[in-house]
Amino acid sequence: MTGIIAQNVGRTSGLIKAASGGTSTGAWTLIKTLTASSSATLSFVDGASDVVLDSTYPIYVFKFINLHPSASASFTFNLSIDSGSNYNVTKTSSHFRAYHSEDDSGGVLAYDTGFDLAQSTAFQDVTGDSLGTDSDIGVSGTMSLFNPSSTTFVKHFQVNLNLAKGNTESKNSYTSGYGNTTSAVDAVQFKMDSGNIDSGKIKLYGLGDS
Amino acid sequence: MSGIIAQNTLDNSGLIKAPAGGGSWTFIKKLTASGDSNLTMVDGTADVVLDSTYKVYLFTFTNVHPSASPYARLEFNLSDDTGSTFAATKTTTCIRSEYNETGGTPLLDYHTGLDLAQSTSNQPLGSSLGSDSDQNTSGWLELYEPSSTTYVKHFMARVNETNYNDSIFDCLYGGYANTTSAIDGIKFQMASGNIDAGDFCLYGLTT
C-alpha cells in the first residue's frame, strides 16, 4: 500500500483498504456470524453458507455472545469430518471450573468429572451445568480450534466460558481436549443438550498466519 | 457511515473506515519448525518486531511435534540482549488439568514441577509431550509490554498437550520476567531433542 492508505493502516481513524476474503480486523478475519432464534442447532460447515473451515487459517476462534436457552440446559458442541453429515468425532477432554454464588456461597475451584470425555463421540458439554432461563441469563466465551484441516495431528480445542448456573451463580468453566482423529475436521455444531438456543450469536473468526 | 464508506463496509474490496478504538492484531512473523534445536524471534532480525510498536504480543504455536519422547515438553525463555542470551529471571505459576483416554482419575492442581521462582531456566509449556505421529502441543502465549523499562514483563499462556501417556494436558501459566530491561527476544525449544514440526506465529496488538 502507498500514500494515504498506508498512512492509516493500524490507526484508529481515516481510511484503510478492506481485506480480501472476509471482514478483517488485522490478523483476525470474521468468517461467519450465526444468530440463534429458537435454534435446535447452529452449525458451521466448510463450504456452506460462506463458512470457511479448512486450511485457509491455522487457528479458528468461535465467540459465543449471550446464548440464551429455551430450557434449563447445558451448552455443547461436536465436530464433523464429513461436512456435517455426522457430528461424532472421538474426543478426550478435561473440564474444570470456578464458581461463586450471588449469596456469597461457593467460591470453589475444582475439576468436574461429569463433563470430561475419554475417547467418546458424545457432544462435549462446555458449560458443565445447566444454564438458567431467566431472561437476563446467558453464556458467553471463546473456543479455539487448532489446525482442523490437519491430516497428521489430533485436533486440539480450548474453551473458556462464563455462565450463570441456575439463575444465581457465576461459573467460569475451562474445557480442553482434542478430537482424536487425523482426518480433517470440516464442521462444528453447537446445541443445548435439551431445548433450543433461543437467542444469541456465535461468530467464527480465522487467525491468519501471513 | 454513508456513501463510499458504507458501501464497502463488510465487503472485501475498496476502502473502509479504520476501526474506532483500534485493537486489531497484526501478523508479524511465522516460523515453521523442521528438526530445529530451537526457534527464536528477535527484534530487528528477519522482519521480527518485538519492541514498543505494540503493547501486547501474541505467540501462537500449532502442532508442535518433538523428535524425542517422553518428557520432551515445549519450553520458552526471554532475552533482554537481542538474543545473545535467553535467561530472563522469571517467577511463574502453573494450573494443570489432565484426563486420560482410558478414563480413570482426572487431575486438577497447581503443578509445582512446572513453575519457576526467580529462575533463569526455560519456562515449560507443557509437561511430557508424546511423540506418536499425531501427538502435538498447541496453544498461545501473550506477552505484555516487553519494551517497558519500568515494569516487570507479565505473560500468560494456555497450552494443550497430548501427553505421552495418552491424556489431554491443559496448562494455564502466568508469570513475569522480573526485569525492568526491555525484552527483545524469545526462544522456543524442547526440553530434550528437537522440534520436528510445528508453526510459531507472532502477532502485535494495536492499541
Write the layout of secondary structure elements.
The complex is a heterodimer of chains A (210) and B (207).
Chain A: H1 3-8, E1 15-17, E2 23-25, E3 28-39, E4 42-45, E5 59-69, E6 75-80, E7 91-101, E8 106-111, E9 117-120, E10 124-125, E11 139-146, E12 155-165, E13 169-179, E14 187-192, E15 197-207
Antiparallel strand pairs in A: 2-3, 3-15, 4-14, 5-11, 5-15, 6-10, 6-14, 7-8, 7-9, 7-13, 11-12, 12-13
Chain B: H1 3-8, E1 15-17, E2 25-33, E3 38-42, E4 56-66, E5 74-79, E6 90-100, E7 103-110, E8 123-125, E9 137-144, E10 153-162, E11 167-177, E12 185-190, E13 195-205
Antiparallel strand pairs in B: 2-13, 3-12, 4-9, 4-13, 5-8, 5-12, 6-7, 6-11, 9-10, 10-11
Structural commentary:
The complex is a heterodimer of chains A (210) and B (207). Chain A has 1 helix and 15 strands, in the order H-E-E-E-E-E-E-E-E-E-E-E-E-E-E-E. By secondary structure, chain A is mainly β. Chain A is globular, with a radius of gyration of 18 Å. Chain B has one helix spanning 3-8, and strands spanning 15-17, 25-33, 38-42, 56-66, 74-79, 90-100, 103-110, 123-125, 137-144, 153-162, 167-177, 185-190, 195-205. Chain B has 1 helix and 13 strands. Chain B has 207 residues and is an all-beta fold. Classes of the chains: A mainly beta (210), B mainly beta (207). Chains A and B meet through strand 1, strand 7, strand 8, strand 9 and strand 12 of A and strand 1, strand 2, strand 4, strand 6 and strand 7 of B.
